[in-house]
Amino acid sequence: MKRRLVGLAVIFMLMGGSHVYAMAVDAVTLQDPALEARARTIMQGLRCLVCQNQSIEISDAELAGDLRRIVRERVAAGDTDDQVRAHLVARYGDWVLMRPPFKLSTLALWAGPPALLALGGLGLWVGQRRRVRAAPPPLTEAEKAQLQEINTRN
Fold it and tell me: Which residue, 27, 55, 71, 103, shows the most beta carbons closer than 10 Å to its own?
């Protein structure tokens, strides 16, 4: 009985992560497998504007489906990968790219996390220095005598 429960638990744990590798299924795909593979590669580099943390290839959002359709249409029309990306960037901005380019308008995306990390480290360092400086001064002789008197009474 215990073995069956352990076996079932292992099976359920293995099945739990399977959704991570799921891909959205579209009714219309490109007939040429090479073009479809190229379109899927492009889709992996494009962000779902609804989900924001998924590529349009795996997102189930309606807008992601529309973006997949646009990518397939552009690939079928003979556009290069860069032309497809440029078309979507012109329409939706750099935010549609999973890895936006480094330029002035995306500076906060690239420099923000390291700057916040540096500020947090600086704050911890300053806080630690203040704690060290705030240590109480040693007891005077009068205070030591007073403490000794209190201890002897108890």
Answer: 71
Q: Write the CATH number for 95.
A: 1.10.8.640
Based on the domain organization, do 19 and 66 belong to the same domain?
Answer: yes
In terms of residue numbers, what domain contains 135? 107-153
81-92 and 62-76 are packed helices; what angle lies between their axes, rounded to 10 degrees? 140
Same domain? For 133 and 94 the reply is: no
Structure tokens given for 126: 């300053």
Tell me, what amino acid is at 125? W
The answer for residues whose C-beta is within 8 angstroms of residue 118's C-beta and 6 or more apart is none
> Are 81 and 125 members of one domain?
no
Q: Take residue 107 and report the two structure tokens written for it.
A: 């500076």
Q: What is the pTM of this model?
A: 0.58
